[in-house]
Amino acid sequence: MTTLKFIADADLNQDLVLGVLRYDGSIDFLNASEGGTRGLPDRQVLEIAAATGRVLVSHDRHTMTAEFYRFLADGHSSPGLIIVKQEMDEGDAIEELLLVCSTSPPEELRDQIFWIPM
After folding, report:
1. d(CA 92, CA 113)
2. CA 92, 72, 102, 31 torsion: positive or negative?
3. What domain range includes position 62?
4. How far apart are CA 7 and CA 117, in angstroms?
């Protein structure tokens, strides 16, 4: 089974990335600096995620989700978008991200928005 790879949007609490990687260092999860998403418009962040085959993880439920739907409508495909509720407890968010990593095949997230918590 192909494993999911992730990239963080600049607005994502980077402690979530660190928490996921502390729990399981084998997960391929780039923070915003490593992934080059810091300071870029949403469209470019989606393009980077698609070009690198990474699921984008963000807190931005407004502009990023709207741009995600425009991205798909323009004929592009995406490995997926995970929106983590910003007010969610960090530990709970990390657990849910780990659950997605361990149970979701890449095709399940392709061109979809996955909400945490559901």
Report:
1. 19
2. negative
3. 5-116
4. 19
**Two structure tokens written together for 17:** 């990335």
Tokens of 50: 């698609």
Instruction: Provide the domain count of the chain.
Output: 1
Q: How far is CA 82 from CA 48, 78, 88, 106, in A?
A: 15, 11, 14, 12
In whole angstroms, give the CA distance from residue 75 to residue 87: 33
Q: Quote the CA–CA distance of 98 and 102 in Å, as a whole number.
A: 6
CA distance 98 to 16: 10
User: Which CATH number is 56's domain given?
Assistant: 3.40.50
C-beta atoms surrounding 103 within 10 Å:
8
pLDDT digits (tens, 9 = 90+) for 65-106: 999 999 999 999 999 999 999 999 999 999 999 999 999 999
> Which residues, 6 or more positions from 1, have their beta carbon under 8 angstroms from its beta carbon?
105
